[in-house]
Amino acid sequence: MLDWHGSGMSVMEMSHRGPEFMGILAEAEADLRELMAIPSGYRVLFMQGGAIGENAIVPMNLIGRTGRADYVVTGTWSEKSAKEAKNYGQVCVAASGEAGAFRAIPPRSEWRLDPQAAYVHICSNETIGGVEFHWTPDTGDVPLVADMSSNILSRPIDVSRYGLIYAGAQKNMGPSGVTVVIVREDLLGHALPITPAAFNYQVQAQNDSMYNTPPTYAIYIAGLVFKHVKSLGGLATMEEHNRAKARLLYDFLDGSRFFRNEVAPADRSLMNVPFHLRDASLDKAFLDGARQRGMVQLKGHRIVGGMRASIYNAMPIEGVRALVAYLREFEAAHG
After folding, report:
1. Which residue positions does N6-(pyridoxal phosphate)lysine occur at (predicted)?
2. What's the whole-model pTM score?
């Protein structure tokens, strides 16, 4: 915190262009490339603005290739992405789960894709509704773009199936403040004239994410997380860990007559598990009891209500066991 490797400086105070931080940045990128098996034809950018910022930055950089893009809407975040992109070109909602209250991902056979679209955009995990892509859509020659903010590093993926991946760090990679963008090199150089230089992927790639001052400390901490995940056995190990946690919680909910999860089983998120009490008048008592047991932030998003357990990489399986024990106790007392 106060003295990085005997330099006499914290990472927070060292020059972002000095050899110390340049080494930190290079090492973080190398570890992320190894973890995700990122092919050589892709650039890794460390940017700012989060996924909300990328909702504008992606179309600024890509939609100019043809003037239009397809969006698959599976919940609140992909809905926001599509809405923002309309400011920069013609956007078509190629498929939507809205009719089913966003409880399932529309089958690929129902997608109406435009072969002339500049890209197809998905949100790989919807934190609010609790649906997740457990498959990679085939979009033919049209590049697939994915917002992976909430499930990146949770399991292995084939990066070569995507044209661009972006993710805010704050769920599985580190503190908020840094956004990772993994972009195929042939998609660089198509930014709209209105694109600020700091948001231009080609400019950032040419400057190794140093066109403007990057979020240095957030990158440093993310780099430590990459090393930690590698030390645990990489993404295959993380997938086993996450599937075990999710299975434990979903199995209890499926066997309960007091709690319910309404997401289609094939599309259930490994990261975010929403659930409802069958008697909503007990919600406050449930949350109060959870807080007394050291379990906080279980209240569901205001859009959907109910409860939500977020079980990202860092949540140990003991935490899920404690939650299931409390669910069982609460049901016995009130059911």
Report:
1. 171
2. 0.96
